[in-house]
Amino acid sequence: MINIYESTITAAKEIPPYGEEGEAVSTIQRDPENRVQVLDEDGNLVGEPPDLDEDTLIDIYRDMKLARHFDERAVSLQRQGRMGTYPPLSGQEGAQIGSAHALADDDWMVPSYREHGAAVVRGLPLKQTLLYWMGYEAGNDVPEDANILPVAVPIASQIPHASGLAWSWKLQGHDDTAGICYFGDGATSEGDFHEGLNFAGVYDVPMVFFCNNNQWAISVPRERQTASETLAQKANAYGFEGVQVDGMDPLAVYKVTQDALEKARNPDEDQPRPTMIEAVQYRFGAHTTADDPTVYRDEEEVERWKAKDPIPRLEAYLRSEDVLDDDAVAEIEATVERQVDEAIDAAESEPRPDPEEMFEHVYADLPPELQAQRDEFVATVDRHGKDAFLEEE
Amino acid sequence: MINIYESTITAAKEIPPYGEEGEAVSTIQRDPENRVQVLDEDGNLVGEPPDLDEDTLIDIYRDMKLARHFDERAVSLQRQGRMGTYPPLSGQEGAQIGSAHALADDDWMVPSYREHGAAVVRGLPLKQTLLYWMGYEAGNDVPEDANILPVAVPIASQIPHASGLAWSWKLQGHDDTAGICYFGDGATSEGDFHEGLNFAGVYDVPMVFFCNNNQWAISVPRERQTASETLAQKANAYGFEGVQVDGMDPLAVYKVTQDALEKARNPDEDQPRPTMIEAVQYRFGAHTTADDPTVYRDEEEVERWKAKDPIPRLEAYLRSEDVLDDDAVAEIEATVERQVDEAIDAAESEPRPDPEEMFEHVYADLPPELQAQRDEFVATVDRHGKDAFLEEE
Amino acid sequence: MSETQNLTLVQAVRDGLATEMELDDDVVALGQDIGANGGVFRATQGLQDEFGEQRVIDTPLAESGIIGSAIGLATGGMKPVPEIQFSGFMYPGFDQIVSHMARYRTRTRSRFSLPMVLRAPYGGGIRAPESHSDSKETFYTHEAGLKVVMPSTPYDTKGLLISAIRDPDPVVFLEPKLIYRAFREDVPTEAYEVPIGEAAVRREGSDVSVFTYGAMTRPTLEAAENLAEEGVDAEVVDLRTVSPMDREAIVESFKKTGRGVVVHEAPKSGGLAGEITALLQEEALVYQEAPIQRVTGFDVPVPLYAMEDYYLPNAARVEDGIREAVEF
Amino acid sequence: MSETQNLTLVQAVRDGLATEMELDDDVVALGQDIGANGGVFRATQGLQDEFGEQRVIDTPLAESGIIGSAIGLATGGMKPVPEIQFSGFMYPGFDQIVSHMARYRTRTRSRFSLPMVLRAPYGGGIRAPESHSDSKETFYTHEAGLKVVMPSTPYDTKGLLISAIRDPDPVVFLEPKLIYRAFREDVPTEAYEVPIGEAAVRREGSDVSVFTYGAMTRPTLEAAENLAEEGVDAEVVDLRTVSPMDREAIVESFKKTGRGVVVHEAPKSGGLAGEITALLQEEALVYQEAPIQRVTGFDVPVPLYAMEDYYLPNAARVEDGIREAVEF
Ligand SMILES: Cc1ncc(C[n+]2csc(CCOP(=O)(O)OP(=O)(O)O)c2C)c(N)n1
Ligand SMILES: Cc1ncc(C[n+]2csc(CCOP(=O)(O)OP(=O)(O)O)c2C)c(N)n1
Ligand SMILES: [Mg+2]
Ligand SMILES: [Mg+2]
């Protein structure tokens, strides 16, 4: 496993240029093993960058910083007992933020459970993410204008939803809506991955299947998850393209995602709309705060991947292009810290839930039996007091 | 759909020779679209035949005739109300008999529900197949020396069993056992196909996954089942080879299966043991006797495929090689008819089941509650008489 | 007066679907072989001709994919009506049913409801192969967030199916294939609703209450008629919706008679008969005059068809159950 | 006297598995993260070091594949012990459980039995994320051919696990993760069996019988002790095996007290409490002095953890239930 990244990525010179005039989808129509890259580990340009204005480049940088800082704070909240089990994302910002930025306003995102970074780009307030992992139902409130499906805990189960959602746009004639569906390397082993992608191929739906291959499914390394050489090549079984991208290179991710979304919206004749993107990356931290990665992987491996950290990499590039300087970085850091502070304060001010909340949102109208259960329970809690049920906070 | 067969099979000249010295697996390591063929539609040799003695060739011919005749009788039994729903196999004998003959005595077969032909090669008495489709539990009795797992009705659900069974041989060190797992074109869409083949790739198990692509999953044609060009190429997602074979050419099927089994047993270094074979074929009749195929397909299409009937094809070849003549064919036909007659007589002599049979074989030892249910029910049937429950026969 | 057609139960399924698809463009049907083939039981016969391939859609052979993509269609604003060919093939899609279909409203605080109807023929008695005869409704009634409907007449079938499609919540609609073509009824051509959650008293009686639903309603009524000749006056309550159950109707009937029998073809252990018994003794123990009898399938896999008539409750067994309740 | 170790329940799982793997080479464990990681709850900690990668096997992330290939391993003569990481993730493998694991013996007239044990931690109370807290044992108790075990103590856990592995039939072994580490017990180091299908009276009493199992045994005993101070003498029966249930023990206790309470964290509708109530009124109606109380989870999805303590029965609710039964 530890050689997967190196073996192909170091062959940077073999990567053909793309994005030249008239070759809009050339980042996609390539051998799955021929990984797309724009920046090398030090932030030097090794491929054609996507056509982005300075503001967007800075936004991508800022959002990665925000995701990283949020992540660090969340992990520490969990350690202090102020939050439950939380799945960190550090290391994966390049893939999440790069891809989410490629979406148009009306596009949709179908997450797994680790895309807190992509979600914030799509309009989900950080407070909601905190509340969710603090175990509050209120965390499930998503603003009506945030085009995002809910967190899906059962691995790969969101993939058929993504196919169905994109299919609904086609059936309803919203030609220019497209979407992105995130899942992990482990998820590719589930039947729902297979069934979901097969439906996408058969109905030719405008969905981009974005695999965050972070090398590990908890303790199971990528190469024991499946015997196929790449995950990207699995797309071939469904009649559409799969492509590998350096998932720790936000600009390469942006470019590939944009090309895939463009193809989803406006395919050439006989060109399939769906694409699978395998974003090769690494999770720096634990699988969740309940996990101890030192049991199954070497610190040395982690260090090797930390050298590819997407944040300093983009920062170096933006500094070299004079888009960022020390002041700008400091200001971004300050803003990001404030934003996360405010979100934590807001989340921690959430009142303890009332027992009747449990019965809301089960059905549009509560059936009589459930009304009876609720009323009886509310009376029980009144009789005994909340403290007989909920732990002191 | 109707062009799939033609489009590649007519390009017979493009099919490279195989089976030459030192090229034991060349029928397998080829492009999935490069379909293997030995006999053309008229029984002329167009590829290297497998190395088979005359007796085996005659056995293959005889078993195909037996399967065909059994099938015709079974369909007619169903029409006469003497049997329930039955899934016919006519047209698919080449794939079933050719592949089953390639198995060694100790090898195993994991069927779906249509492999009555392959099963008889593996030692399952015809009487059992009849009883099964007549709804008798006794049909589930399989001789201890018949290495065959039970009929699996839920589509594709037997595939993970096949992977597990082959894995058990590896774990137990029976190096030279291998197996074949049958399933249809429709089955490739199920999650269990994906999970089963992925396990086979990861644990590198000695199993051959044999897809009877008969072009239809009930009324759904192959090309609407999945957008991939071939089914064989799906194997690539699991890190092993997939190959297409002319499934109505019993000799090509034999050859490819033999090569795949050989590789399963004795792989070269770094060569994966599993193989997926897509045997391109056609079901001449209905999906089951409950199905009316004229609703969804043209007679013309059926006729076109009937021209590829594996039985006259092999017969023509064997006659041209002087292995068969009129007398031999007549004798085979007479034997086959007698065999099927006897099996039907035996099956139809099966006594009506007793009510207590229903409670047998649920657990090794019947739990008290179930004993009580049984005893009470037996008393009920005694009280009312069997006729109050079972229809008159 | 409104027009009617004389329809079988399976024709009423088709008619209910067609009627609502006519009225509501968001309704789409999808499943294996439901298009040109019209479904293996012809429940969607001709619908593809009528509504086109975009609204009556043949799918690949993948139950989790069918249910999962229907969930996706519903999040996209449509009202999908997926068909699973036999209820015994819902299991490969079980995770989608339990983890998502049932829980999506809760998980999204009602931002997304899933106005979908998962149809499947259920039950035994048609001499079908293995796995084709299951009656495992409690797998779904035990999961909050789902409604589960099991009609027993053509009239109810159309009305309940239309209610189910219009219901903002996901409905599992289990069709009694044993009686798909057993009899006909006059069914209005227009759209109408039979409310979800209301039982129907099929036969009034004063001696004993017999609770049943779906295909078992007929042998139950037959048994009640047979026993009437012996002077036993049984009330037969057809639940129609098994989740949420019409507890009021059940309790009311029982309070009247003080004796109860529950009939279903699902296995005894963990079947609805236990739930109904528990309900009755919670709500009406003081009225109870005899143990409630469970006349159900046995705790065995449904046997192959030569023995399935032993497995399924029939009029003789229902009569025995009623007698036990009455003679206690 | 035999040696003992002082173990938690999860350590007893590990010890039971190790003990039997030592004795029987056919036993293999497989599942997600059970190897180097030792399982997410450490139930297989160190086993891979002890028995090697061929007997303690990390699998791909695919529940149907895990259960299905375990079935295949069993047909090949092995005794697989697959672990599903949380019982809420058994659903993607539900078809393999229901259509195959449960029915393989019947389908093959006992040519193949499936001596396998499907382990999974179940239940709430550990502040885990969504889908991680399900207690849906009736999905399995309703399927004939399976045995379902839910232990509540370290001693029983080891003995029942060994019995389950040795049992020729497939067993679903649901482990109460809430009490994985809640307390320790002396557990013999050697192999021993606790028989499947036998309940244990955890507290003798004469006023009321309280039936429970798994993680709910502790709050139930706590409630019983609390009420003893008020002069209510409750008998607490721990079922240990929920299928087949020890009907004799249940009925016997009830006949003694005439009053019953059932406690489980599974949802009320369709939970085992209904089944037990039905059993009691079938077998012992004349002894019954009060409605049997169901103290259970509610008919809602298990809420996220901030509210899960509302969802789970606790001592206060059990006490209320017992009082209702006693004061009726
Ligand atoms: C169906 C199912 N099985 C098991 C789990 C437990 N689980 C949670 S995350 C995880 C690993 C997922 O790995 P991957 O898909 O690579 O995503 P990552 O966590 O690395 O982002 C597992 C096994 C689950 N949530 N759902
Ligand atoms: C899980 C499941 N879903 C649906 C069915 C109903 N069914 C039986 S056969 C069949 C078509 C199978 O097609 P294919 O795999 O191509 O095999 P063939 O019948 O053509 O041999 C279907 C849908 C089933 N048996 N199992
Ligand atoms: Mg991963
Ligand atoms: Mg087919």
From TrEMBL, chains A, B:
SUPFAM superfamilies: Thiamin diphosphate-binding fold (THDP-binding) (SSF52518). InterPro entries: Alpha-ketoacid_DH_E1_comp (IPR050771), DH_E1 (IPR001017), PdhA/BkdA (IPR017596), THDP-binding (IPR029061). It comes from Halolamina pelagica. It holds the Pfam family E1_dh. One of its GO terms (biological process) is branched-chain amino acid catabolic process. This is Transketolase. It comes from the Archaea. One of its GO terms (molecular function) is oxidoreductase activity, acting on the aldehyde or oxo group of donors, disulfide as acceptor. Keywords: Oxidoreductase. Residues 62-356 form the Dehydrogenase E1 component domain. CDD domains: TPP_E1_PDC_ADC_BCADC.
From TrEMBL, chains C, D:
The keyword Oxidoreductase applies. InterPro entries: THDP-binding, Transketo_C/PFOR_II, Transketolase-like_Pyr-bd, Transketolase_C. GO terms for biological process: organic acid metabolic process; sulfur compound biosynthetic process. Pfam families: Transket_pyr (PF02779), Transketolase_C (PF02780). Its cofactor is thiamine diphosphate. GO terms for molecular function: oxidoreductase activity. It comes from the Archaea. The keyword Oxidoreductase applies. Residues 7-182 form the Transketolase-like pyrimidine-binding domain. Coiled coil: none annotated. Gene3D superfamilies: 3.40.50.920, 3.40.50.970. Keywords: Oxidoreductase, Pyruvate, Thiamine pyrophosphate. This is Pyruvate dehydrogenase subunit beta. It comes from Halolamina pelagica.
